[in-house]
Structure formats: structure tokens, C-alpha cells
User: Fold this.
Amino acid sequence: MVMKKIKAVFFDVDNTLYDSTLQVEMVRQNAIKAMIEAGMDITEEEGLEALKDIVGRMGSNYEHHFDDLLKKYGYESNPRIIAAGIVAYHTTKAAYLVPFPDTVPTILSLRDRGYKLGVITEGRSVKQWEKLIRLGLQHFFHTVVISEEIKRQKPDEEIFRTAAKRAGCHPEEAVMVGDRLDKDIIGAKKAGMVTVQIMKGKYCERKPESKDEEPDYVIPTLKELLKILE
Assistant:
């Protein structure tokens, strides 16, 4: 594909800048282990399956996942067991919130080449900023656009157009890198951006279901982006 002069590069956060799929697996696993050690009489498999179901029904921003887990197995509220799960969850969350090995070198190279850099992500603003700060990446980006802030969700093309405007360019002069065809690729493509799918995380095996979901480029790791932009 022939690209216009590219002025800006935007990134999704989860499974693009770091391995959020692994992080989620480990925080849940360690939380359940800690709750069992604190006195909850279930197997790890039972706990993980039940927790996955609760998160699926109530959403990731719900604040009482562990309380509901206790209720499911007939327990009265138990502060010790809940606290054990919370501590293990947050300790593990921080331990696995690290960039992919090539994230920082790629971002530095793009910055040195003069590209405007940005983030386009979904979720609660505080949580997404926490990720960027813990990843040590917050200072690299000229603009960060979060769905909660502008009241638009991916794949609404307006979230991508807003990011381009804030970076001082047209969507056609920007590249969007993300892991999800149904969120990052289709939305950015409709906005007019060049789209790059990174093959990371739990959605990497998913195939395009329409022409709109077909990325312009597919890369196995972030550093491959530099070859595309040469």
C-alpha cells in the first residue's frame, strides 16, 4: 500500500504496549491461591472459573468480585479472605505491568524520527493512566485519548479522529497500532488511518470477518513497525 506522509503513530495499550492477557491470567490465579490459603475451601479450577464468570457478568470495573465469589460458595463476608485476594491481585498486577521488550526502543526510535506519538485506548481514565505511568511510558506521548474522557467507545471512528486532531494531523497522516480487529482496526480504518495489527494477546488468532476488519499490515512484534515506516 502507498502511504501518505505519516506524521503520527497511535497505539492501543493492552496487548500492544504490554502483555495484558498474561497479566490478567496471573492476577486471577494468584488471587484465588491467596484466598484458598486464607481459608476458602475450593479448588483453584473452581475459583478461576467462578471468578471469570463474575467478571464476565459484572464487568472488570465492578468492585465486589471477591465478595460475590464468597457468596457463590456459601460463605459469609470474610474480610481476611477478601483482603488476601486483593493483596495478591494488586501485587501481581504491578509485577506483570511491564512493557514488551521492544516497546521502549521502538517508541524512542519513532520519537527520534520526528513522529508525533499517541495512545487511543478504552476504559476508565484513571486506570488507563495508571497503566501508562506504571509502564513508565506516560512522558513519551504527545496525546492520550481515552474512551471515558470523550464519551466514545472503539470502534467509533470519532475517537480516532479526535486523536489525530489533537496530534495536529489528518487521520490519513496517522498510523494506528492495536491487537483487536473489531476495535482498533475497523475503527481506525473507517476514520482513514493506516492500520497495523500486532499479533499479541488472546485475540491474535481471530480472523477478519469483513473487509473493514482487514488491517493494512500485520506485525508479530512492535519493532517491525519501524520497517513499515521506513
Summary: The CA atoms of residues 197 and 218 lie 5 Å apart.
